[in-house]
TrEMBL record:
Upper taxonomic lineage: Bacteria, Bacillati, Bacillota, Bacilli, Bacillales
CDD domains to which the protein is assigned, alphabetical: EAL
Name of the protein in question: Diguanylate cyclase
UniProt xrefs under Pfam families: EAL
UniProt-listed InterPro entries: Cyclic-di-GMP_PDE-like (IPR050706), EAL_dom (IPR001633), EAL_sf (IPR035919)
Top-rank taxon, per record: Bacteria
EAL domain location: 188-434
Coiled-coil boundaries: none
GO molecular function: cyclic-guanylate-specific phosphodiesterase activity
């Protein structure tokens, strides 16, 4: 598990190490551990249908520490750094999602994570990485108060379409490092320019996935899904929104998404309900109500009651003073509110009680293989009871086969969506086929 360090990585002393979760050690017999377990782990995640995020924790003053601490103090610092981060990461991230943690290719540590769309939003990833950084820095200060390291974090997703996994990993790591360092004339500025250009040119595409009435099989509504410029590194929504968040442009991007959806409704003449995803960060923005009203004024033929604003359940709403106020104002305007991913995290009941949503969307993690798992069906029944108590309709997400759909029917779930019914398509194509 150890590799000798070359000159470029000599700042970490004589050795550098790849840390793997214990359950993954079984995948690597001792004689093969030295052969790039990271690439193998990335490939496995891709084959399982997941994304892979690279998170860099960059120590800005690492090169000054040997002079400041002395050689022995510096080596102690490096050892403490690895141990501290590893312990905090294991507390915040499920072990099965950790591909590896290593301490080369940057002045700090690099974490590889397998990302399941159904369990992690961009905001959730960002929140957890900041918490890992905050807790690790606090623990480091207790262990070695004299070191006073300044650490920044950044993350990026590995492109699946890249012809070489190794080159895709290197590119993503360089971009994550640029996000952490926010260097002048760095890739951070290039990505900032790219997102600014996308926003300025409104260069995004909107796809639509139907939401089906379980009892009748009819299309009841459409959820709109965002894609970046085709054929670019920001085509994936995960890449696009993660870069936008880290460059401070998430609100601007989400408002462009809203504007484009209104344009599509006008272009297609769609009269069915439309679901639009928003992060709590944007919904809680002090400019949100004003900007929404401006767009509605330009599209007076689109009634707010046709639009459902979908909030990702995992994103914390605590401490956002404008959030609940904005939700109340949106309701007076006629919008409906949905809570997304219910059942996927610990904040489900809290979010429902705070927001009292019109619609509760049950996460794919509850629905997957529900026909084979009586406990999951009991969970579904419990969520249906909560929804009825709150006066909310229920949408089950991620239905992939007839057997899962049959469980929804016998439990009288209101609405459902997933590949079993239809993959995302252009709204106008969907309207013609429905």
């Amino acid at each position: 598990m150890v590799h000798r360090c070359n000159e470029k990585t000599a700042t970490f002393g004589k050795w550098m190490k790849i840390f793997l979760p214990l359950h993954k050690m079984r995948d690597y017999p001792p004689q093969f551990i030295i052969r790039d377990p990271i690439t193998s782990g990335v490939k496995r995640a891709f084959r399982s249908g997941y994304e892979v995020a690279i998170v860099v924790f960059n120590i800005n003053n690492l090169r000054d520490l040997p002079n400041h601490l002395g050689q022995q103090g510096y080596l102690k610092f490096i050892s403490c750094l690895k141990k501290t981060f590893w312990e905090v990461i294991k507390q915040e991230i499920e072990e099965e999602d950790i591909i590896a943690l290593h301490d080369y290719s940057s002045d700090g540590l690099t974490l590889f994570l397998s990302i399941d769309h159904n369990r992690y939003s961009v905001t959730e990833i960002d929140k957890r990485m900041k918490k890992i950084l905050r807790e690790s820095e606090k623990n480091m200060y207790v262990e070695m108060p004299a070191a006073k390291p300044t650490i920044d974090t950044g993350y990026m997703f590995i492109e699946k379409k890249h012809y070489s996994i190794q080159e895709a990993i290197l590119k993503a790591q360089q971009q994550a490092l640029a996000m952490a360092e926010k260097r002048v004339r760095s890739e951070f500025n290039d990505m900032l320019y790219s997102v600014n250009k996308i926003i300025a040119q409104k260069d995004i595409r909107m796809l639509a996935q139907p939401i089906i009435n379980v009892a009748t099989g009819e299309v009841k509504a459409w959820e709109m899904l965002t894609r970046g410029p085709k054929g670019t590194g920001l085509e994936s929504p995960l890449q696009l929104f993660s870069v936008a968040k880290q460059t401070g442009l998430l609100y601007d991007l989400e408002m462009i998404v809203f504007e484009k959806i209104l344009e599509q409704i006008n272009a297609t003449g769609c009269t069915q309900d439309i679901f639009i995803n928003f992060t709590p960060i944007s919904l809680g923005n002090e400019r949100f109500i004003r900007d929404i009203k401006k767009m509605l004024a330009k599209n007076k033929n689109i009634p707010p009651r046709q639009l459902t604003l979908e909030i990702t359940e995992r994103d914390s709403i605590d401490g956002m003073e404008n959030f609940l106020y904005n939700i109340k104002v949106l309701r007076t305007l006629g919008f409906r509110i949905a809570v997304d991913d219910t059942g996927a995290g610990y904040a489900s009941l809290h979010s429902i009680s705070e927001i009292m949503p019109d619609i509760i969307k049950i996460d794919r993690s509850v629905i997957q293989d529900i026909d084979k798992n009586s406990v999951k069906e009991s969970m579904l029944q419990g969520l249906l009871l909560i929804a009825r108590e709150a006066g909310s309709l229920v949408v089950a997400e991620g239905i992939e086969n007839k057997d899962e759909a049959s469980v929804l029917s016998r439990n009288k779930v209101d609405l459902a969506q997933g590949y079993y019914y239809s993959r995302p398509t252009a709204l106008i194509q969907g309207l013609k086929s429905s």
